[in-house]
User: Which sequence fits this backbone?
């Protein structure tokens, strides 16, 4: 759930940037990439190397580096989910869980929003934009 206006404004900015097409997109969700991510976490590879050092026969998965946004990189963390596409599937689950309340919130049409006053109107518009962005990220 989005907890403050700063995060909402950041999401709105990402939505605008995504449509500009001026930057690399996150491999997982399509918003502008801010970082690079190892599809096999380095800590996982280090663990496998230690097992090899003990004499165990362990296969080390192929490492790929993909563009990613800050949020996707943090949500996936140091866990190993297999292939990059398997990580993408897991990320969709993690995003859905994180933004469940926003995703399940009602949609408002323009006529309903126009009837609102002040901060309530602003709040609903911002949340509707954030919901659109999350839905685009989940369908990417």
Assistant:
């Amino acid at each position: 759930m989005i907890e403050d206006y700063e995060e909402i404004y950041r999401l709105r900015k990402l939505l605008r940037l995504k449509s500009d097409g001026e930057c690399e997109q996150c491999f997982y969700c399509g918003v502008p990439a801010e970082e690079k991510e190892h599809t096999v976490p380095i800590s996982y590879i280090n663990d496998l190397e230690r097992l090899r050092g003990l004499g165990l026969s362990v296969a080390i998965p192929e490492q790929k580096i993909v563009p990613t946004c800050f949020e996707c990189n943090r949500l996936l963390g140091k866990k190993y989910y297999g292939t990059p596409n398997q990580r993408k599937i897991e990320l969709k689950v993690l995003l859905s869980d994180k933004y469940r309340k926003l995703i399940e919130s009602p949609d408002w049409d323009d006529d309903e929003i126009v009837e609102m006053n002040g901060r309530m109107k602003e709040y609903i518009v911002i949340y509707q934009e954030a919901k659109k962005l999350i839905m685009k990220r989940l369908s990417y």
